[in-house]
Specification:
mainly beta; 34% strand; 3 domains; elongated; three-stranded antiparallel sheet; left handed beta-beta-3-solenoid; TIM Barrel; eight-stranded mixed β-barrel; 6 helices; 37 strands
Length: 470
């Protein structure tokens, strides 16, 4: 979504003065630019659009379809005050291009009462646009304003109100950072009804994230050749988005008919992951001896998402204070069993695990944390990098002289000559005083020597590299 807090870490190159970072350097708040058609990228099953993307023609949507897009989720409303002026055209043109159309609402509510009001506002616009009750409606839950109160109850109130109005097919859009900050319990909505947003710095088709959910929005900076602008793209794991013909009474039939490659089939939103199905255990349950994680009745080893966090299980047992390896990366689960993020001290050494919901250990790269710079070695151990600016550096404001990261005033020797700097700026054609003497810097900024005519008068500054006025 256009408003999502894109807190990701992405490889980049940055040169500031004399300090050049390599192509493995990491900077914050960036999302990689992706061009549809690139090899080894996750599928682009879904694109979501808003008024920011303009009207978009039938041809635009056809070009997206040519790159594998099957469905479009159109923003209709925000809060209880905004209706997209281009939604009707986007919906019509997407349908004409043969794409499945869903709709989403950008939530601003802070209580169950406000959630009810926004659900009514959303549903009213759905009706005005002539969308059937079988349309998949998504609740975009990411805005900081919505983090007030009991976030789970507020989201349930929104869902329940839409259900009461006849809209049974719903998705909940959110992100790991939001879940972590609000303790939103996505299990209550059914995993296949969750549309998770999280952006890798190097998305690849052989490292798909969040496969326990219905869909994963993996990039918000994708361009399609021949189409103006950039777009949010998602891979579908078996959500309701692409089961266009389903109704409240024939969802299972639609699921059987909508075999989406080899991905898991969609399920109804009424079953939390901990639910015991028949005689098979599934999820994190008390099996009569202790709490264990089961997959299809078998004790599970690996990562699983549970109640707002990722945990590592070994033969069903939750692990604590341990290093674990998966998908070619290393992770650490802390004393509470949760996979850690951010800057962590483990056995008196510092490590960095990112802050974008990826949790893996950063190695062989430079990272910036709270404006401090570190180098992560092959084992991920951090050492602080001295980044104080020193000398004559090219800054966004121009060339400046720094001493211990401060703009300098006075004489400094540079490239075979003495120059005078004031607050880092080189001075020209000026008299300057220092050490009880007077000096003059010429048109090239250099301190002059010998006989010099200045403003119609002759002066002598010596010829022994002392430069002061006699």
């Amino acid at each position: 979504m256009n408003n999502l807090k894109k807190i990701v870490m992405i490889a980049a190159t940055s040169i500031v003065g004399m300090y050049a970072l390599s192509t493995n350097d990491v900077t914050a708040n960036s999302v990689p630019n992706i061009t549809a058609g690139e090899a080894n990228k996750p599928r682009m099953d879904l694109v979501d659009v808003s008024s920011w993307n303009k009207t978009l023609s039938v041809t635009d949507f056809q070009k997206m379809k040519a790159h594998g897009v099957r469905g479009v989720i159109v923003k209709l409303t925000e809060g209880n005050y905004y209706v997209s002026p281009v939604a009707a055209t986007q919906i019509s043109n997407a349908r004409t291009a043969g794409l499945i159309v869903s709709a989403y609402h950008y939530a601003k509510y802070r209580s169950p009462q406000e959630a009810y009001q926004e659900a009514d506002y959303f549903a009213n616009q759905v009706q005005k646009l002539g969308l059937p009750t079988t349309t998949v409606l998504a609740n975009d839950l990411e805005d900081s304003q919505t983090q007030a109160g009991n976030v789970t109850n507020n989201a349930l109130a929104f869902r329940n109100r839409l259900t009461a109005l006849g809209y049974q097919r719903q998705m909940l859009y959110t992100a790991p950072y939001y879940i972590s900050q609000t303790q939103l319990d996505v299990n209550l909505f059914g995993n296949r009804n969750i549309w998770m947003a999280s952006y890798p710095y190097n998305p690849t088709s052989d490292n798909l994230w969040h496969q326990q959910y219905g869909a994963w929005q993996w990039n918000s900076n994708t361009n399609f050749p021949g189409v103006t602008g950039v777009f949010d793209v998602s891979v579908d794991y078996g959500s309701q988005f692409l089961a266009e013909q389903a109704t409240t009474t024939n969802v299972n039939d639609a699921i059987q008919n909508n075999k989406h490659e080899t991905q898991p089939k969609p399920v109804l939103p009424t079953k939390p992951v901990e639910k015991i199905e028949s005689t098979h255990y599934q999820g994190y349950i008390d099996d009569g001896t202790a709490w264990r994680w089961y997959e299809k009745g078998r004790l599970f080893t690996g990562f699983r998402f549970y109640r707002g966090a990722y945990y590592w299980f070994k033969n069903g047992v939750r692990q604590v204070n341990q290093w674990e390896s998966a998908w070619g990366y290393r992770y650490y689960v802390g004393f509470d069993g949760r996979a850690v993020q951010g800057l962590q001290t483990i056995n008196q050494k510092q490590y960095y695990f990112g802050d974008n919901g990826t949790f893996y250990l950063r190695t062989n790269q430079k990272v910036t944390i709270n404006k401090q710079h570190f180098l992560a070695n092959e084992q991920g151990v951090l050492t602080k990098v001295n980044t104080k600016r020193q000398g004559y550096l090219d800054t966004p404001q121009g060339w400046r002289w720094f001493e211990n990261d401060q703009l300098f005033t006075g004489f400094r020797f540079y490239m075979g000559a003495y120059y005078w700097f004031e607050k880092g700026v080189r001075q020209e054609n000026k008299w300057k005083s220092a050490w009880g003497y007077r000096y003059y810097v010429g048109s090239d900024g250099r301190a002059v020597q010998g006989h010099r005519k200045i403003n119609g008068h002759w002066y002598y500054f010596g010829n022994d590299n002392t430069f002061y006025l006699r």
